[in-house]
Amino acid sequence: MKKIWAFPLALAIFACNSEEKKEKMEINSYPETVKVDTVDTYFGTEVPDPYRWLEDDRSEQTAEWVEAQNEVTFGYLNNIPFRDKIEKRLTELWNYAKEGSPRKHGDYYYTYKNDGLQNQWVMYRKKGLDGEEEVFLDPNTFSDDATTSLAGTSFTKDGSLLAYSISEGGSDWRKVIVMDTEDKSIVEDTIRNVKFSGISWKGNEGFFYSSYDKPEGSELSAKTQEHKLFYHKLNTPQSEDELIFGGSETPRRYIGGYVSDDERFLFISASVSTSGNELYVKDLSDWNNPIVPIATGFDSEHGVLDNDGDRLLIETNLDAPNRRLVEVDVNNPSTENYKDVIPETENVLNVSTAGGYIFANYMVDVKTEVHQFDYEGNKVRQVELPGIGTAGGFGAEKEDEKLYYSFTSFTYPSAIFEYDIEKGTSELYWKPEIDFNPEDYETEQVFYESKDGTKIPMFITYKKGTELNGKNPTELYAYGGFNVSLRPSFSIARLVWLENGGIYAQPNLRGGGEYGEEWHKAGTKMQKQNVFDDFIAAAEYLIAEGYTDSDHLAISGGSNGGLLVGATMTQRPELMKVAFPAVGVMDMLRYHTFTAGAGWAYDYGTSEDSKEMFEYLKGYSPVHNVKEGVKYPATMVTTADHDDRVVPAHSFKFAAELQEKHAGDSPVLIRIETNAGHGAGKPTDKIIDGIADKYSFAWYNMGVQPFREEM
């Protein structure tokens, strides 16, 4: 067997497209991936795991394999004739000024901006809305290659101190730095090894944060189990930080602490998975006060919106799958004393506060509708939005008279509006200047039937005048899990696809949160196949209605969406021409043994739960369902070497299985980003490179020539 570190780049050329008379690349061989004799036994069933060695992210052999795979992948991508033209057009479109909504802290308004192609967004501030603007914090200076990003910020109530977290190489492990906002000086030593954490100040004395004990072995892949909530007092060593909640006495996988706006209470959320949580409260007027439970168990979700003295306002899905806002007295806060303030409706609710009012953001068939209420639950008005799409950011301090919200849709670049809280009027505050005419494109929402007859919504966007002849290159993108909702939004990258005659389709699969907790549950555990069936039905609808055909369809998704793509392409390999599983959860028998993977068990179940659950997971696990002699679509698996959310071994093993067993001529590549993580904080230049590779790979393997109007 040829050793992977001796692999030479081998790309052969052969003629394949009779219409275009173009030459197309063929990969004669892939890096040989050594097999080992690892076998696991689940409930009496032996399951081989021949590529187990690829789970060791610290080994020299894994590093050599990554290098060999990237040599093949980038050799292929860099030889696609129009790849550079795609990158150039993406860069042209991307190069416009971008801006976030301003937020007031102390005497200053802070906002994030990007002048066009900056790798990281820059934090600006000005004293009052009419003050002179200055750069406050520039993450582009954090590292030479811009792979260290700003991951979160938290100001003290008076705005005099800022605690901000940074991520290096895209890792979920963070460092926290405290700054005096007046002179921008660093206040104390860096807080290290922080993970899955917010930062919440207690006055100006210190703050609460969460983390795990640093794992033994690989920091990127070792399992993290017991989250801990700490209190850090300023100007004291991190080693002296006080454990507030969690650890061995109260083991929970995810713990967060946040201080009430009046700084009277600490609220603690604790959970064992990504759904359902306990809720606790501690009166901070006396540090020795006990931590009191509000809601126990993990069957429902609870989060404190605000308090009005002793009256707590809590958003919950307890007895309300679409969520409701309730009140309870902090002196007697158990769930049986919940009283509705904003009752559940047929639409999913998300609440925020600003200027002494409550803003109820509803999803109505995945589109935003916002209603303004007073603190007693009386409706004041419905907020008039700029159009049909997605609005967010209805938050501000109680004393603020205005708030700033964003609005976007598939053909509406994200803009910021200033909203007068008392008058209920909106004015455009900022909009981007983009080389884009929304009148050239259209979006429709359709409802199609899945395998079991369930109606599934899907947005479809394309250039006006597109002929539905069944030959249009189409990207079908979805997620379908963890109560996540895919909303209408504008993408400058997607514009390159659309302006070249492409169609973009985004279905809202079960497993997501678009229609509440029942919709979510319908795509979990023993019902996970519903998600794949919904996605397959979306593809079949697009083909039946003439949008595209199997030779011009690409499916894509990331993380849980990467699992979606992996499962779909192994179940129905003939349905699509191209597949893009990104940072996917591909080994469903072992996902829970890495980093925080065990926390995903609410959605997936685990192979250790029962024989039935094991067999169900094995039945769709992408790594375990690649079959010898099957022709799979042209596939580009993507991952990153510093992904400590969904470890890259998932993608490594899936790619190895495909390369060994795939019987067709279509390429099976794995693109491994170096010094990058699960996606957050990725520099602009890396993002553009990745999209250029994706679109060029898709068009090339569909036999489509982009930029025809220029020819």
From TrEMBL:
It is an enzyme of class 3 (hydrolase). Its EC number is 3.4.21.26. One of its GO terms (cellular component) is cytosol. It holds the Pfam family Peptidase_S9. Keywords: Hydrolase, Protease, Serine protease. One of its GO terms (molecular function) is oligopeptidase activity. Residues 488-703 form the Peptidase S9 prolyl oligopeptidase catalytic domain. It catalyses: Hydrolysis of Pro-|-Xaa >> Ala-|-Xaa in oligopeptides. Residues 31-429 form the Peptidase S9A N-terminal domain. One of its GO terms (biological process) is proteolysis. Belongs to the peptidase S9A family. Cleaves peptide bonds on the C-terminal side of prolyl residues within peptides that are up to approximately 30 amino acids long. Has an absolute requirement for an X-Pro bond in the trans configuration immediately preceding the Pro-Y scissible bond. This is prolyl oligopeptidase.
